[in-house]
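Case study B.
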Amino acid sequence: MLDIKNKHEKDARRRFADGMRDKLRNALLPIITLASIILIWAAAAAATDNPYVLPSVGRTVKEFFALFAYGEFYAAVGATILRAAAAFAVSFVVAGVTAFAAKKNQIFERLVAPLVTVLRALPTVAVVLLLLVWTNSEIAPMIVTMLVVFPTLFTNLENALDSVDGELLEMCKVYGVPAKKVLTKVKIPAVLPQVTRAAGSGLSLNLKLMVAAEVLSQTAVSLGYFLSTSKAYFETAKMIALVLVAVILGLIIESVFERLAAAAEKHR
Amino acid sequence: MIKLIDITKKYGDKTVYEKFNLSLDEKKVTVILGESGAGKTTLLNIMASITDFSGEIQGLPRESRVSFVFQKDRLVPNLTVRENLLLTSENADVASALAKTGLSEYENKYPSELSAGMARRVAILRAFLFDSPVILMDEPFINLDPALKYSIMEMFLDMQRHTGRTAVSVTHDVNEAVYIADRIIVISGGRVVYDNPEVTEADEKKILAVLLKTGKTS
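Model:
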Protein backbone atom coordinates (compact mmCIF):
# COMPACT_ATOMS: atom_id res chain seq x y z
CA MET A 1 0.00 0.00 0.00
CA LEU A 2 2.80 2.34 1.04
CA ASP A 3 4.73 1.39 -2.12
CA ILE A 4 1.74 2.31 -4.29
CA LYS A 5 1.40 5.67 -2.49
CA ASN A 6 5.12 6.37 -2.96
CA LYS A 7 4.87 5.43 -6.64
CA HIS A 8 1.94 7.84 -7.14
CA GLU A 9 3.83 10.62 -5.38
CA LYS A 10 6.91 9.93 -7.52
CA ASP A 11 4.80 9.98 -10.70
CA ALA A 12 3.15 13.27 -9.68
CA ARG A 13 6.55 14.82 -8.90
CA ARG A 14 7.92 13.63 -12.25
CA ARG A 15 4.92 15.03 -14.14
CA PHE A 16 5.30 18.37 -12.32
CA ALA A 17 9.03 18.50 -13.12
CA ASP A 18 8.36 17.61 -16.79
CA GLY A 19 5.70 20.32 -17.00
CA MET A 20 7.98 22.95 -15.49
CA ARG A 21 10.82 21.95 -17.83
CA ASP A 22 8.51 22.28 -20.87
CA LYS A 23 7.24 25.69 -19.71
CA LEU A 24 10.79 26.92 -19.10
CA ARG A 25 11.94 25.65 -22.49
CA ASN A 26 8.98 27.28 -24.24
CA ALA A 27 9.72 30.59 -22.53
CA LEU A 28 13.50 30.43 -23.03
CA LEU A 29 13.73 29.45 -26.69
CA PRO A 30 12.20 32.66 -28.12
CA ILE A 31 14.38 34.73 -25.76
CA ILE A 32 17.50 32.87 -26.99
CA THR A 33 16.52 33.53 -30.63
CA LEU A 34 15.86 37.22 -29.95
CA ALA A 35 19.09 37.60 -27.98
CA SER A 36 21.04 35.92 -30.83
CA ILE A 37 19.60 38.36 -33.39
CA ILE A 38 20.48 41.34 -31.17
CA LEU A 39 24.00 39.98 -30.59
CA ILE A 40 24.60 39.47 -34.32
CA TRP A 41 23.19 42.95 -35.00
CA ALA A 42 25.43 44.52 -32.31
CA ALA A 43 28.49 42.70 -33.68
CA ALA A 44 27.70 43.72 -37.27
CA ALA A 45 27.09 47.35 -36.21
CA ALA A 46 30.41 47.41 -34.34
CA ALA A 47 32.19 45.85 -37.35
CA THR A 48 30.77 48.32 -39.89
CA ASP A 49 31.10 51.26 -37.49
CA ASN A 50 28.88 53.36 -39.74
CA PRO A 51 25.47 54.47 -38.33
CA TYR A 52 24.22 55.31 -41.86
CA VAL A 53 24.70 51.68 -42.93
CA LEU A 54 23.88 49.83 -39.71
CA PRO A 55 23.18 51.82 -36.54
CA SER A 56 23.84 50.33 -33.10
CA VAL A 57 21.11 48.60 -31.13
CA GLY A 58 21.14 51.36 -28.52
CA ARG A 59 20.77 54.14 -31.07
CA THR A 60 17.90 52.32 -32.77
CA VAL A 61 16.11 51.75 -29.47
CA LYS A 62 16.54 55.47 -28.71
CA GLU A 63 15.02 56.35 -32.11
CA PHE A 64 12.20 53.89 -31.50
CA PHE A 65 11.13 55.63 -28.29
CA ALA A 66 11.75 59.07 -29.79
CA LEU A 67 9.08 58.29 -32.40
CA PHE A 68 6.42 58.40 -29.71
CA ALA A 69 7.19 62.06 -29.04
CA TYR A 70 6.02 63.10 -32.52
CA GLY A 71 2.35 63.93 -33.08
CA GLU A 72 2.81 63.18 -36.78
CA PHE A 73 3.94 59.66 -35.93
CA TYR A 74 0.63 58.87 -34.20
CA ALA A 75 -1.30 60.37 -37.11
CA ALA A 76 0.74 58.30 -39.58
CA VAL A 77 0.33 55.04 -37.63
CA GLY A 78 -3.38 55.72 -37.14
CA ALA A 79 -3.93 56.49 -40.82
CA THR A 80 -2.02 53.36 -41.92
CA ILE A 81 -3.97 51.16 -39.51
CA LEU A 82 -7.27 52.70 -40.66
CA ARG A 83 -6.40 52.22 -44.32
CA ALA A 84 -5.31 48.61 -43.68
CA ALA A 85 -8.44 47.90 -41.64
CA ALA A 86 -10.75 49.39 -44.27
CA ALA A 87 -9.06 47.52 -47.13
CA PHE A 88 -9.06 44.34 -45.07
CA ALA A 89 -12.76 44.71 -44.19
CA VAL A 90 -13.73 44.99 -47.86
CA SER A 91 -11.50 42.05 -48.81
CA PHE A 92 -12.81 39.97 -45.89
CA VAL A 93 -16.48 40.54 -46.77
CA VAL A 94 -15.92 39.85 -50.48
CA ALA A 95 -13.82 36.73 -49.72
CA GLY A 96 -16.45 35.53 -47.23
CA VAL A 97 -19.35 35.94 -49.66
CA THR A 98 -17.33 34.39 -52.51
CA ALA A 99 -16.19 31.43 -50.39
CA PHE A 100 -19.76 30.81 -49.23
CA ALA A 101 -21.11 30.97 -52.78
CA ALA A 102 -18.29 28.71 -54.03
CA LYS A 103 -19.15 26.12 -51.38
CA LYS A 104 -22.81 26.24 -52.39
CA ASN A 105 -22.31 26.16 -56.14
CA GLN A 106 -19.64 24.12 -57.94
CA ILE A 107 -19.96 26.08 -61.21
CA PHE A 108 -19.32 29.34 -59.33
CA GLU A 109 -16.36 27.70 -57.57
CA ARG A 110 -14.87 26.76 -60.95
CA LEU A 111 -15.46 30.28 -62.24
CA VAL A 112 -13.73 31.84 -59.23
CA ALA A 113 -10.75 29.42 -59.15
CA PRO A 114 -8.78 31.04 -62.04
CA LEU A 115 -9.37 34.51 -60.61
CA VAL A 116 -7.98 33.40 -57.25
CA THR A 117 -4.95 31.85 -58.97
CA VAL A 118 -4.27 35.06 -60.93
CA LEU A 119 -4.66 37.25 -57.84
CA ARG A 120 -2.31 34.96 -55.92
CA ALA A 121 0.36 35.44 -58.59
CA LEU A 122 0.01 39.25 -58.73
CA PRO A 123 3.35 41.09 -58.46
CA THR A 124 2.48 43.64 -55.75
CA VAL A 125 4.98 46.32 -56.78
CA ALA A 126 3.94 46.26 -60.45
CA VAL A 127 0.28 46.51 -59.50
CA VAL A 128 0.92 49.48 -57.20
CA LEU A 129 2.68 51.31 -60.05
CA LEU A 130 -0.19 50.56 -62.42
CA LEU A 131 -2.77 51.64 -59.87
CA LEU A 132 -0.88 54.88 -59.35
CA VAL A 133 -1.45 55.61 -63.03
CA TRP A 134 -5.15 54.93 -62.72
CA THR A 135 -5.89 56.23 -59.21
CA ASN A 136 -4.02 58.26 -56.58
CA SER A 137 -1.58 57.62 -53.74
CA GLU A 138 -4.40 57.28 -51.21
CA ILE A 139 -6.44 54.72 -53.11
CA ALA A 140 -3.69 52.65 -54.78
CA PRO A 141 -2.31 51.04 -51.56
CA MET A 142 -5.84 50.17 -50.45
CA ILE A 143 -6.75 48.47 -53.71
CA VAL A 144 -3.50 46.53 -53.94
CA THR A 145 -3.77 45.20 -50.39
CA MET A 146 -7.38 44.21 -51.03
CA LEU A 147 -6.36 42.27 -54.13
CA VAL A 148 -3.29 40.60 -52.61
CA VAL A 149 -4.97 39.53 -49.36
CA PHE A 150 -8.14 38.28 -51.08
CA PRO A 151 -6.84 34.83 -52.26
CA THR A 152 -5.41 33.95 -48.84
CA LEU A 153 -8.63 35.01 -47.13
CA PHE A 154 -10.74 33.15 -49.70
CA THR A 155 -8.83 29.88 -49.17
CA ASN A 156 -8.85 30.20 -45.37
CA LEU A 157 -12.56 31.03 -45.26
CA GLU A 158 -13.40 28.18 -47.65
CA ASN A 159 -11.51 25.81 -45.35
CA ALA A 160 -13.33 27.30 -42.37
CA LEU A 161 -16.69 26.52 -43.98
CA ASP A 162 -15.56 22.90 -44.31
CA SER A 163 -15.18 22.69 -40.55
CA VAL A 164 -18.94 22.49 -40.01
CA ASP A 165 -19.64 18.91 -38.94
CA GLY A 166 -22.00 17.30 -41.46
CA GLU A 167 -23.17 14.76 -38.86
CA LEU A 168 -24.32 17.56 -36.55
CA LEU A 169 -26.22 19.17 -39.42
CA GLU A 170 -27.89 15.83 -40.13
CA MET A 171 -28.84 15.54 -36.45
CA CYS A 172 -30.39 19.03 -36.61
CA LYS A 173 -32.31 18.04 -39.75
CA VAL A 174 -33.70 14.89 -38.14
CA TYR A 175 -34.79 16.80 -35.04
CA GLY A 176 -36.21 19.62 -37.14
CA VAL A 177 -34.04 22.34 -35.57
CA PRO A 178 -34.99 25.69 -37.18
CA ALA A 179 -32.49 27.03 -39.74
CA LYS A 180 -31.81 30.19 -37.68
CA LYS A 181 -30.84 28.09 -34.66
CA VAL A 182 -28.66 25.80 -36.80
CA LEU A 183 -26.85 28.89 -38.07
CA THR A 184 -26.33 30.58 -34.70
CA LYS A 185 -25.78 27.54 -32.48
CA VAL A 186 -24.01 25.10 -34.80
CA LYS A 187 -22.62 26.63 -38.00
CA ILE A 188 -21.25 29.99 -36.77
CA PRO A 189 -19.59 28.56 -33.63
CA ALA A 190 -18.04 25.82 -35.81
CA VAL A 191 -16.43 28.24 -38.26
CA LEU A 192 -15.65 31.04 -35.80
CA PRO A 193 -12.20 29.86 -34.59
CA GLN A 194 -10.85 29.40 -38.12
CA VAL A 195 -12.49 32.60 -39.37
CA THR A 196 -10.95 34.55 -36.47
CA ARG A 197 -7.51 33.08 -37.18
CA ALA A 198 -7.91 33.86 -40.89
CA ALA A 199 -8.90 37.43 -39.99
CA GLY A 200 -5.89 37.85 -37.70
CA SER A 201 -3.30 36.62 -40.18
CA GLY A 202 -5.08 38.47 -43.01
CA LEU A 203 -5.11 41.79 -41.16
CA SER A 204 -1.47 41.41 -40.14
CA LEU A 205 -0.47 40.64 -43.75
CA ASN A 206 -2.61 43.55 -44.91
CA LEU A 207 -0.77 45.95 -42.61
CA LYS A 208 2.66 44.85 -43.87
CA LEU A 209 1.54 45.14 -47.50
CA MET A 210 -0.03 48.51 -46.78
CA VAL A 211 3.27 49.93 -45.47
CA ALA A 212 5.10 48.64 -48.57
CA ALA A 213 2.45 50.07 -50.89
CA GLU A 214 2.53 53.42 -49.05
CA VAL A 215 6.30 53.60 -49.53
CA LEU A 216 5.88 53.07 -53.27
CA SER A 217 2.90 55.42 -53.55
CA GLN A 218 4.35 58.13 -51.31
CA THR A 219 0.99 58.29 -49.52
CA ALA A 220 0.78 61.45 -47.38
CA VAL A 221 0.30 60.87 -43.62
CA SER A 222 1.35 57.23 -43.50
CA LEU A 223 3.89 54.94 -41.90
CA GLY A 224 5.19 54.26 -45.42
CA TYR A 225 5.79 57.99 -46.01
CA PHE A 226 7.66 58.21 -42.69
CA LEU A 227 9.89 55.36 -43.92
CA SER A 228 10.46 57.08 -47.28
CA THR A 229 11.49 60.40 -45.75
CA SER A 230 13.78 58.61 -43.28
CA LYS A 231 15.46 56.89 -46.23
CA ALA A 232 15.82 60.21 -48.07
CA TYR A 233 17.63 61.69 -45.03
CA PHE A 234 19.74 58.54 -44.40
CA GLU A 235 18.07 58.09 -40.98
CA THR A 236 18.75 54.35 -40.88
CA ALA A 237 18.10 54.01 -37.16
CA LYS A 238 14.71 55.67 -37.59
CA MET A 239 13.93 53.36 -40.52
CA ILE A 240 14.70 50.27 -38.45
CA ALA A 241 12.62 51.74 -35.60
CA LEU A 242 9.68 52.21 -37.99
CA VAL A 243 10.07 48.63 -39.24
CA LEU A 244 9.97 47.53 -35.59
CA VAL A 245 6.73 49.49 -35.14
CA ALA A 246 5.18 47.63 -38.10
CA VAL A 247 6.42 44.27 -36.76
CA ILE A 248 5.04 44.98 -33.28
CA LEU A 249 1.67 46.09 -34.68
CA GLY A 250 1.48 42.87 -36.73
CA LEU A 251 2.37 40.75 -33.70
CA ILE A 252 -0.25 42.52 -31.55
CA ILE A 253 -2.95 41.93 -34.16
CA GLU A 254 -2.07 38.23 -34.56
CA SER A 255 -1.85 37.72 -30.80
CA VAL A 256 -5.25 39.39 -30.14
CA PHE A 257 -6.96 37.34 -32.85
CA GLU A 258 -5.25 34.14 -31.68
CA ARG A 259 -6.65 34.71 -28.18
CA LEU A 260 -10.10 35.36 -29.61
CA ALA A 261 -9.87 32.16 -31.69
CA ALA A 262 -8.71 30.15 -28.66
CA ALA A 263 -11.71 31.50 -26.68
CA ALA A 264 -14.05 30.58 -29.55
CA GLU A 265 -12.83 26.98 -29.66
CA LYS A 266 -12.59 26.47 -25.90
CA HIS A 267 -15.11 23.64 -25.80
CA ARG A 268 -14.59 22.20 -29.27
CA MET B 1 -48.95 0.54 -36.15
CA ILE B 2 -46.14 1.87 -38.34
CA LYS B 3 -46.22 0.31 -41.78
CA LEU B 4 -43.44 0.33 -44.36
CA ILE B 5 -45.07 -0.46 -47.68
CA ASP B 6 -43.25 -1.45 -50.87
CA ILE B 7 -40.05 0.27 -49.88
CA THR B 8 -37.38 0.29 -52.58
CA LYS B 9 -33.93 1.71 -51.98
CA LYS B 10 -30.93 1.60 -54.30
CA TYR B 11 -27.38 2.92 -53.98
CA GLY B 12 -26.31 3.27 -57.59
CA ASP B 13 -26.66 -0.21 -59.12
CA LYS B 14 -26.92 -1.92 -55.74
CA THR B 15 -30.46 -2.68 -54.59
CA VAL B 16 -30.74 -2.72 -50.81
CA TYR B 17 -34.54 -3.09 -50.61
CA GLU B 18 -36.98 -4.08 -53.34
CA LYS B 19 -40.69 -3.82 -52.47
CA PHE B 20 -39.87 -4.31 -48.80
CA ASN B 21 -42.78 -4.46 -46.34
CA LEU B 22 -42.74 -4.35 -42.56
CA SER B 23 -45.17 -3.50 -39.77
CA LEU B 24 -43.87 -2.21 -36.45
CA ASP B 25 -45.84 -2.41 -33.22
CA GLU B 26 -46.49 0.81 -31.37
CA LYS B 27 -45.16 1.32 -27.85
CA LYS B 28 -42.85 -1.67 -28.26
CA VAL B 29 -39.10 -2.02 -28.69
CA THR B 30 -38.26 -3.67 -31.99
CA VAL B 31 -34.65 -4.63 -32.61
CA ILE B 32 -33.40 -5.28 -36.12
CA LEU B 33 -30.44 -7.60 -36.48
CA GLY B 34 -28.51 -8.52 -39.59
CA GLU B 35 -25.04 -8.93 -41.04
CA SER B 36 -22.97 -5.89 -42.00
CA GLY B 37 -24.34 -4.28 -45.14
CA ALA B 38 -27.76 -5.86 -44.70
CA GLY B 39 -29.34 -2.41 -44.78
CA LYS B 40 -30.20 -1.96 -41.10
CA THR B 41 -29.01 1.64 -40.87
CA THR B 42 -30.53 2.36 -44.29
CA LEU B 43 -33.90 1.26 -42.92
CA LEU B 44 -33.59 3.75 -40.04
CA ASN B 45 -32.52 6.49 -42.45
CA ILE B 46 -35.57 5.74 -44.60
CA MET B 47 -37.84 6.01 -41.56
CA ALA B 48 -36.16 9.30 -40.58
CA SER B 49 -36.46 10.58 -44.18
CA ILE B 50 -32.75 11.37 -44.37
CA THR B 51 -32.27 9.25 -47.47
CA ASP B 52 -34.27 9.02 -50.68
CA PHE B 53 -36.46 5.99 -51.27
CA SER B 54 -39.61 4.97 -53.06
CA GLY B 55 -42.58 3.50 -51.29
CA GLU B 56 -44.79 4.57 -48.44
CA ILE B 57 -44.56 4.81 -44.70
CA GLN B 58 -47.84 4.84 -42.82
CA GLY B 59 -48.22 5.93 -39.20
CA LEU B 60 -45.16 8.18 -39.29
CA PRO B 61 -45.08 11.84 -40.31
CA ARG B 62 -42.77 12.20 -43.30
CA GLU B 63 -40.94 15.34 -42.12
CA SER B 64 -38.75 15.62 -39.04
CA ARG B 65 -40.85 14.04 -36.35
CA VAL B 66 -38.70 11.16 -35.25
CA SER B 67 -36.09 10.96 -32.53
CA PHE B 68 -32.76 9.47 -33.51
CA VAL B 69 -29.98 8.06 -31.36
CA PHE B 70 -26.98 7.96 -33.68
CA GLN B 71 -23.95 5.69 -33.42
CA LYS B 72 -21.93 8.73 -32.37
CA ASP B 73 -23.53 10.97 -29.75
CA ARG B 74 -23.67 14.00 -32.07
CA LEU B 75 -23.84 16.51 -29.23
CA VAL B 76 -23.01 20.07 -30.28
CA PRO B 77 -19.56 20.68 -28.72
CA ASN B 78 -20.02 24.39 -28.00
CA LEU B 79 -23.30 23.89 -26.13
CA THR B 80 -23.74 22.62 -22.58
CA VAL B 81 -25.83 19.54 -21.86
CA ARG B 82 -28.79 21.79 -21.05
CA GLU B 83 -28.33 23.82 -24.25
CA ASN B 84 -27.98 20.64 -26.32
CA LEU B 85 -31.29 19.35 -25.00
CA LEU B 86 -33.01 22.71 -25.54
CA LEU B 87 -31.67 22.89 -29.11
CA THR B 88 -33.88 19.98 -30.15
CA SER B 89 -36.67 20.36 -27.57
CA GLU B 90 -37.19 24.07 -27.01
CA ASN B 91 -39.97 23.83 -24.45
CA ALA B 92 -38.83 20.76 -22.55
CA ASP B 93 -38.43 20.72 -18.78
CA VAL B 94 -34.75 19.92 -19.05
CA ALA B 95 -33.95 20.30 -15.33
CA SER B 96 -36.61 17.80 -14.34
CA ALA B 97 -35.61 15.32 -17.08
CA LEU B 98 -31.97 15.54 -16.00
CA ALA B 99 -32.96 15.02 -12.38
CA LYS B 100 -35.03 11.94 -13.22
CA THR B 101 -32.10 10.37 -15.07
CA GLY B 102 -29.52 11.32 -12.44
CA LEU B 103 -27.76 13.73 -14.78
CA SER B 104 -28.45 16.99 -12.91
CA GLU B 105 -24.82 17.61 -12.02
CA TYR B 106 -23.91 17.54 -15.73
CA GLU B 107 -26.47 20.17 -16.75
CA ASN B 108 -23.87 22.88 -17.37
CA LYS B 109 -21.07 20.64 -18.59
CA TYR B 110 -19.88 20.65 -22.20
CA PRO B 111 -19.74 17.39 -24.21
CA SER B 112 -15.93 17.39 -24.01
CA GLU B 113 -16.26 17.26 -20.21
CA LEU B 114 -18.50 14.16 -20.28
CA SER B 115 -17.39 10.53 -20.20
CA ALA B 116 -18.48 8.29 -23.09
CA GLY B 117 -21.25 6.83 -20.91
CA MET B 118 -22.58 10.23 -19.83
CA ALA B 119 -22.58 11.55 -23.40
CA ARG B 120 -24.53 8.45 -24.47
CA ARG B 121 -27.08 9.01 -21.69
CA VAL B 122 -27.54 12.61 -22.82
CA ALA B 123 -28.02 11.48 -26.44
CA ILE B 124 -30.69 9.00 -25.33
CA LEU B 125 -32.36 11.60 -23.10
CA ARG B 126 -32.42 14.01 -26.05
CA ALA B 127 -34.30 11.39 -28.07
CA PHE B 128 -36.90 10.89 -25.34
CA LEU B 129 -37.34 14.63 -24.68
CA PHE B 130 -38.10 15.29 -28.34
CA ASP B 131 -41.81 15.14 -29.01
CA SER B 132 -42.06 12.35 -31.58
CA PRO B 133 -44.00 9.10 -31.94
CA VAL B 134 -40.94 6.95 -32.53
CA ILE B 135 -37.34 6.69 -31.44
CA LEU B 136 -34.87 5.27 -33.94
CA MET B 137 -31.55 3.99 -32.62
CA ASP B 138 -28.51 3.06 -34.68
CA GLU B 139 -26.28 0.78 -32.58
CA PRO B 140 -26.97 2.92 -29.53
CA PHE B 141 -24.88 0.92 -27.07
CA ILE B 142 -21.81 0.36 -29.23
CA ASN B 143 -18.29 0.91 -27.84
CA LEU B 144 -19.31 0.86 -24.19
CA ASP B 145 -17.83 -1.48 -21.62
CA PRO B 146 -20.29 -4.21 -20.48
CA ALA B 147 -21.22 -2.77 -17.06
CA LEU B 148 -21.82 0.70 -18.49
CA LYS B 149 -23.69 -0.74 -21.45
CA TYR B 150 -26.16 -2.62 -19.24
CA SER B 151 -26.70 0.37 -16.97
CA ILE B 152 -27.45 2.57 -20.01
CA MET B 153 -29.73 -0.11 -21.47
CA GLU B 154 -31.58 -0.12 -18.13
CA MET B 155 -31.93 3.66 -18.31
CA PHE B 156 -33.32 3.33 -21.84
CA LEU B 157 -35.80 0.59 -20.85
CA ASP B 158 -36.93 2.59 -17.83
CA MET B 159 -37.63 5.67 -19.96
CA GLN B 160 -39.29 3.59 -22.67
CA ARG B 161 -41.62 1.93 -20.15
CA HIS B 162 -42.51 5.27 -18.57
CA THR B 163 -43.17 7.09 -21.81
CA GLY B 164 -44.55 4.18 -23.84
CA ARG B 165 -42.63 5.30 -26.91
CA THR B 166 -42.20 3.13 -29.96
CA ALA B 167 -38.52 2.31 -30.44
CA VAL B 168 -36.68 0.73 -33.34
CA SER B 169 -33.07 -0.18 -32.76
CA VAL B 170 -30.50 -1.81 -35.01
CA THR B 171 -27.51 -3.71 -33.70
CA HIS B 172 -25.05 -6.54 -34.37
CA ASP B 173 -25.20 -7.68 -30.78
CA VAL B 174 -27.68 -10.53 -30.14
CA ASN B 175 -27.20 -10.30 -26.40
CA GLU B 176 -28.07 -6.61 -26.40
CA ALA B 177 -31.03 -7.25 -28.71
CA VAL B 178 -32.49 -9.92 -26.44
CA TYR B 179 -31.99 -7.66 -23.39
CA ILE B 180 -34.00 -4.70 -24.69
CA ALA B 181 -36.33 -6.07 -27.37
CA ASP B 182 -40.00 -6.96 -27.28
CA ARG B 183 -39.64 -8.10 -30.86
CA ILE B 184 -36.57 -9.13 -32.88
CA ILE B 185 -36.34 -9.09 -36.65
CA VAL B 186 -33.41 -10.43 -38.68
CA ILE B 187 -32.88 -8.88 -42.10
CA SER B 188 -30.81 -10.44 -44.86
CA GLY B 189 -30.67 -9.71 -48.58
CA GLY B 190 -33.28 -6.98 -48.26
CA ARG B 191 -35.97 -9.18 -46.65
CA VAL B 192 -37.07 -10.35 -43.21
CA VAL B 193 -35.69 -13.85 -42.55
CA TYR B 194 -36.66 -14.09 -38.89
CA ASP B 195 -39.38 -12.39 -36.89
CA ASN B 196 -39.98 -13.07 -33.23
CA PRO B 197 -42.68 -10.84 -31.69
CA GLU B 198 -42.26 -12.13 -28.14
CA VAL B 199 -38.59 -12.44 -27.37
CA THR B 200 -37.31 -14.31 -24.33
CA GLU B 201 -33.76 -15.04 -23.23
CA ALA B 202 -34.25 -18.61 -24.42
CA ASP B 203 -34.44 -17.36 -28.01
CA GLU B 204 -30.84 -16.14 -28.05
CA LYS B 205 -29.37 -19.36 -29.46
CA LYS B 206 -32.07 -19.59 -32.10
CA ILE B 207 -31.37 -16.02 -33.24
CA LEU B 208 -27.62 -16.68 -33.30
CA ALA B 209 -28.25 -19.69 -35.52
CA VAL B 210 -30.27 -17.55 -37.93
CA LEU B 211 -27.50 -14.94 -38.04
CA LEU B 212 -24.86 -17.61 -38.63
CA LYS B 213 -26.91 -18.91 -41.51
CA THR B 214 -27.31 -15.47 -43.08
CA GLY B 215 -23.64 -14.60 -42.90
CA LYS B 216 -21.48 -12.88 -40.34
CA THR B 217 -22.31 -12.33 -36.71
CA SER B 218 -20.79 -10.21 -33.97
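The mean pLDDT of chain A is 91. The remaining cases will be described in the next quarterly update.
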